Amino acid sequence: MNLNKKRRWHCLSGQEPTELDKKVMAFESKGKLVPTRDMIRTPEQIEGIRQAGKLNTGCLDAVEAMIEPGITTQDIDDVVMQYCKDHDCHPSCLNYEGFPKAVCTSINEVVCHGIPKKKDVLEPGDIVNVDMTLDYKGYFGDASRMFIIGGKTTPEKEQLVRVTKECLDLGAEAAKPWGFLGDIGHTIQKHAEKYGYGVVRDLCGHGVGLAMHEEPEVLHYGHKGTGMLLVPGMTFTIEPMINMGTWKVFIDADDPYGWEVISADEQPSAQWEHTFLMTEHGVEILSY
Fold first, then answer.
1. How confident is the model over 35-66, as pLDDT tens digits?
2. How many domains does one find in the chain?
3. Which of 102, 150, 202, 261 could bridge across to 124 with cysteines, CB 3.0–4.6 Å?
4. Which NCBIfam families does the UniProt record give (predicted)?
5. For 172-193, what is the HEC assignment?
6. Quick one: DSSP state of residue 48?
7. Is 8 among the domain residues?
8. Annotation-wise, does 78 bind a ligand?
9. Strand order from edge to edge, sheet including 261-263
């Protein structure tokens, strides 16, 4: 190893290397990409992120209780804003790099970042992703769910929603301590492509907890044994975006904010997302 090479991992100042330090540095000495120490959460931070995740889950539950044919996506945004007001938390999407609403509502061929609107009335058979991040006392929870409006849609859309959830669950199973992020992406890609689906590559999961978006990037495609080392104490999202057709996407030219992402062939898309904590035994869901 080149001792002059700048290391990502550093032991705490004035302390002897712990067993965790030694294990991470052993991987780093073999040329593996490792996290920085500040990506490993303290017990206090984990508890804060867990509380934010519970509120985020509660807000999605509130949306699930009201979502039905005939409501607008603006109605969903109104519910999120009221929930945040009632629970002393903040919708992190609101005004984030110009995003004008509190939550993302993505219908059918909209892959992600759909903007709530009064004119967008939900129809029976629509599939809708509701994606939100809440900030509670400086800690962040992030998750999204798919909804089938009216409870029934085409067999093709139903399968897409189901398989996308399976991709999330299988990706979580593949996330093991001292494994690699590429293990997650490989597993998701393999399952999605078995059905002829495209795995979106322009967007990804990410670290979350002390900010809405942090290191590392969590790709939903790739190869086993590649990417960053997964170390207990890391918090991140897995959020596969799976298209019925091509994996390619474009930004809606009619969106004045430049946020709405649409599948390139305008076939339906689905997404599920949880926030996870990596533990010594696997992942724990913090927001779902």
1. 999 999 999 999 999 999 999 999 999 999 99
2. 1
3. 150
4. met_pdase_I
5. HHHCCCCCEHHHHHHHHHHHHH
6. H
7. no
8. no
9. 110-112, 261-263, 249-251
| 113 annotated as belonging to a binding site for a ligand | yes
Tell me which residue has tokens 């790709």.
219
Question: Do 188 and 221 meet the contact criterion of CB atoms below 8 Å apart?
Answer: yes
> Within 10 A of 246 (CB to CB), how many other CB atoms are there?
14
User: Of 233, 219, 236, whose CA–CA distance to 185 is shortest?
Assistant: 219
10 is in an annotated binding site: no
Domain hosting residue 43, numbered range: 34-287
The verdict on whether residue 273 carries a ligand-binding annotation is yes
Token pair of 204 as six digits: 């990804």
Helix (H, G, I), strand (E, B) or coil at 235: strand
193 Cβ neighbours under 8 A, 6+ residues apart:
199
Q: pLDDT of 159-208, one tens digit each?
A: 999 999 999 999 999 999 999 999 999 999 999 999 999 999 999 999 99
Q: 50 lies in a domain?
A: yes
Residue 60 within any structural domain of the chain: yes
Strand partners, 90: 135
| Domain CATH number, residue 168 | 3.90.230.10
In a domain, 18, yes or no: no
Residue 2 has pLDDT above 70, yes or no: no
CA dist 109 → 143, 193, 256 (Å): 20, 18, 18
Annotated binding residue at 166?
no
Nearest residue to 53 (alpha-carbon basis) of 283, 220, 225: 283
97 labelled binding-site residue: no
This prediction has a pTM of: 0.95
End-to-end CA distance of the chain: 41
Distance CA 52, CA 193 (A): 34
Tell me how far apart the alpha carbons of residues 221 and 201 are, in angstroms, rounded to a whole number: 7
